[in-house]
């Protein structure tokens, strides 16, 4: 099984992992699923033009962009960008070019609009 260390993922090791459905145009590879005491950690792969609708963060979310560019209402985040979204914040997310991000959520988000 391919490694999911930061070094391996940053070097493109994510390309060897299996991704499953998440949202239209976005697939997911769970590194660690949520449980009662632990955050969820995953890779999200956006096709060009894919988006996640407006949502609220119920806990801290951190994102490391591994490939491409991810965007939200605050700007565009390219390879190597580290994004922190505080609990209670809201935004929508998209990628015009397609991207892969490493994401950690303290708690699942609440989708506000489709």
UniProtKB/TrEMBL annotation:
<dbReference type="InterPro" id="IPR014710">
    <property type="entry name" value="RmlC-like_jellyroll"/>
</dbReference>
<dbReference type="Pfam" id="PF12973">
    <property type="entry name" value="Cupin_7"/>
</dbReference>
<dbReference type="InterPro" id="IPR025979">
    <property type="entry name" value="ChrR-like_cupin_dom"/>
</dbReference>
<protein>
    <submittedName>
        <fullName>Cupin domain-containing protein</fullName>
    </submittedName>
</protein>
<feature type="domain" description="ChrR-like cupin">
    <location>
        <begin position="15"/>
        <end position="103"/>
    </location>
</feature>
<dbReference type="InterPro" id="IPR011051">
    <property type="entry name" value="RmlC_Cupin_sf"/>
</dbReference>
